Structure formats: C-alpha cells, structure tokens
Amino acid sequence: MKFSLISTVLAATSVALGTDVHSLTKASFDSFIQEHPLTLAEFFAPWCGHCKALAPEYEQAATILAGSNNEIALAKIDCTEENDLCSDHDIQGFPTLKVFRGSAENVSPYLGARKADAIVSYMNKMSLPAVSTIDKTSLENFKTSDDVVVVGFFADNDANKTFTAVADVLRESFLFGATSDPALAEAEGVTVPAVVMYKNYDDAKTIYTGSSFTTDELLKFVKLESVPLVGEVGPSTFSGYMQSGLPLAYIFIDNDEHKSKFVEILLPFARKYKGKMNIATIDAVKYGQHANNVNLEQQWPAFAIQDIESNLKYIYDQASEITAEGLEAFIEAFHAGSLSAKIKSQEAPEVQEGPVVIVTANTYDELVLDEDKDVLIEFYATWCSHCKRLAPIYEELGEIFWSDEDLKTKVTIAKVDTPENDVPDEVRGFPTIKLYPAGDKSNPIEYEGDRTLQSLNDFIRDNGKYHIDGLAAMKSKFVKEEKIEEHDEL
Ligand SMILES: *[C@@H]1O[C@H](CO)[C@@H](O)[C@H](O)[C@H]1NC(C)=O
After folding, report:
1. What's the CATH class of domain 357-476?
2. What's the pLDDT score for residue 78?
3. Which of 119, 146, 253, 298 is surrounded by the most beta carbons within 10 Å?
4. Cβ of 133 less than 6 Å from ligand 1
5. Gap from CA of 160 to ligand 1 centroid (Å)
6. CA–CA distance from 381 to each of 134, 385, 415, 421 (Å)?
7. What predicted TM-score, i.e. pTM, was given to this entire model?
8. 51 in catalytic set
C-alpha cells in the first residue's frame, strides 16, 4: 500500500512537472522523427498492463537520455487515440517499441529489456556508429565500456568491410571498435587482420583464432564466445538453452554469496565441457517454481542436470550439502553415464475407469508402447485452456473405443498430465497429440489436424495398424441395434 501510494504521488509529480517523453500524434509524428536522428517510439494502449509497468521505466530513461544526450528522443503514441498512425506502423500488440533513424522508413524493432538502464544502454549503442574508431588513447577505456566489446585490428579495406558487416548484424548486442594502427595490434599480441573480444567475466580476453576472416566465421565467434561460461537462466536466456539441445546443469541460488561461490566452483567444469553441456545459475527467489520442472524440492541451493534430448532429470541429493567435491563427482558421473535419473510420476490409477486411459510416467511403457495396440495419446497440462476445450471431444473419441469390447483390444485413447510426468516425448506445446501405431512404436505420428471428432477419428483410421474407423463402426452398430429393436417391436 505504502509503495503504491508513493509511486502514485511520484507519477502525479512528474506529470505536473512535465515529462521527457514526447507524446506524438499522426499530425506530429513524421516531422518529429525527421527532426531527431534517433527516436525510440512506444506504441501503447492505456489499459495494457505491460505498458503501465513500462511507463515509469520509460520516463526515467527519457530523463537520463535528455540530460546526457539530446540526440536521442523517447516518444509515445496512444494507439486508442491514434488508430491510423498505429495501423500505418503495423502495430499488433502493446507495447510495441521501435527505433527510428531520422525517417519513418528507417526503422528497426527495439530488442532490449524494458528497464530504464537497459533502454539507456541500448539507445546509446544505437546512437554510435556500428563500429567506433579506436586509437591508442581510447583503447583501454573502450575495452571496459560494456560487458562485452569486440575490437577489430586491420590494415585493409576488405577486412574492414567484413568486420563492419558483423558489427551491423550484432550492433544491438555488443559494442564494436576498430583500429588500423599497427602498433596497437602489436601491443595486443595479434597480427592483422585480427579480432579480439574483451569481457568483464570469464577469460577477460579472447582472440579469434579461426583460419578465415569471413563474416560467417566472425559472427559465430562473437556469438559463441560472448556466452558466459557459467550463465544465468532467465526469461531471456531459457529458450536459447533449450534450443542448444545440450544438457543443462543449473544451480538454484537464493543469495549473491552462494552465487559467486558456486560460479567459481562450476567454472572449471564449464570450461572442460564447453560445447557438451551448459552450466548456469538460476535465481531461486524469482524462478523457484521452475525447480518442479526438474524434479527438485524448493530448497536452496539445489543442483540438477536436465538432459534436454531425453528429457531426463538428474538431481543432486537434496538431503546432503552441495560441496565442490560433491559437484565434481556428480558432473563426472553424469558424463560417464553412471547417474540414474529421477523420474517424476503421478500415481497410476488402480483401475482405469475410461473412456480415456490415464497414463503416468511409470505406466508409459506398458500402456503407450503396447505393441498390440494403436495408442493415441494426448500430452496435456491442467492449466492449458486449449486442452480444456478439447476434453469433451477427446472423451467422446475415447468412448467410441472404450465401449466396444473388440475395438478396446485394438485402440487406446490415452492422456498424460505432462508437467506431472516425465515422458520421453519432446512436447513443444499443449495439447500435443501423437499416435503410437501397434507394431511400430519407434515411429509415432504427431497429429496436426483440426481438433474435431471426425478428424481425430480419421487420423487413427489412416495411420493406425488396424485402420479402424471407430465412428463408422459405431454408426453401423447403432443401425444394427435399431434394427434389432424394430424387430423386437414387431
Ligand atoms: C573502415 O572503413 C571506414 C569507411 O571507409 C573508415 O571510416 C574507417 O576509418 C575504417 N576503419 C579502420 C579501422 O580503418
């Protein structure tokens, strides 16, 4: 209560005192963009929660930038008032942030975080040329002017072009500098053309050692080497870790002291297994819930390795203290293949009540990999609304096969509460539906059709070993039964 009161008062004050964020309209937009070499524009709606959260950060960034650099302007456009302007700029959601360079056509999406300091740093980077020219007086300062900076040393035009092309692609993420002074290259211990990355973490200086000086190779170098050896799992990095496909070792940490201690312990392993495994910390205060996904209890610090390919989780015994020796033994055992995974499973129902068969991690092999049956399985989550919408249709589908003694021996309609059960399948979204045909369990087929009864039925008919058309079978059964009834009545 207190806080919200204070921020309300502050917000009121800043309105009263004027603001450094320029409100633009269709009438003022183009001329404003042309008058300012660099503008960050926020397209927003007053009712949007993320916009409200951004507002004080945006104000603060505008004030900092107005004080230090009048080249950079921050603007906002209320899309509930400026419908035309927002549709001209193809605004699909709120807030949308775009960077304009002196004209409405020269525009790029804003890719930074929605925090004041991140906005300031991003826009400052954007205001510099993609490559800053470095000399011997500026090199030392430049090296430490950001978390990661990349410096090119070269004497010829081709190398200059290649390096500038790399900088153009990655200018939002890193600072790039270059020099053609041979004395500087010599002092840094490199022969031209050379590229050196300076970081404020890990090995502070990394020299590009690839054989060819091409844009592709240099891009790879910058991307790979800029990843910290022991990184941090968070909203902006998580999908990258998942996409890498490498096992991810995380340590859940709830204080800074533990963080620096464990980063130091883990660093040698990160170096040793670079390219084979990722090692990262994760803030247990903010993302403690994620521990459930790797089968850990919420008790910190905690350490687990998630094998992304097999979706198996290996956890460091939570009853014992996490020590340097313990971590070493654990990581080495993982790479030797001698750890056993902790499988999360719900309790299997004692009796399947139907019409949809409930699968758990422990019964997955028995039920889904049953070689005698075509098994359609839905991977769902209890919170998923598409799954809820599908549920009655899926039950109906289940009923067709469940209620017929013959069909029941050939086709199973099943489901698994996926967040609660470790399944071997890669499930990218909910619901995911797959058919495991009888006799061919290594080739499941993912269902991509409409979520209708007919279409699900046809999928089983077309792809199952038995080619059973459940709906047709049921209809003809009804016809028969009706006939029998008619007969009875006679
Ligand atoms: C690279 O080329 C640009 C454009 O010609 C030039 O301004 C810059 O000084 C060159 N950089 C170096 C380090 O030679």
Report:
1. alpha beta
2. 96
3. 119
4. yes
5. 6
6. 54, 9, 10, 10
7. 0.53
8. yes
